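Homework help board

Subject: predicted structure for assignment chain

Our instructor gave us this sequence and asked us to write out the predicted structure in token form, then describe one feature. I got the tokens but I'm not sure how to describe them. Can anyone check?
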Amino acid sequence: MLPVQNKKYSQGEIDLNDGRTLYINRAVGHLWQVRFNVRPEITIFELEKA
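My token output:
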């Protein structure tokens, strides 16, 4: 059960085609917005100077 209408934005790295990148973590959900059969995830970003 995903709380979003557009499944494109359900998880992962998404290129917004304007020089920006969006990342959506799979998370663990809360209250009624649970995600069944999805393992919890910890995201680590390593930033580098351009």
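Reply (TA_rk): Your tokens look well-formed. For the description, you could write something like this. The first strand starts at residue 12 and ends at 15. That's the kind of observation they're looking for.
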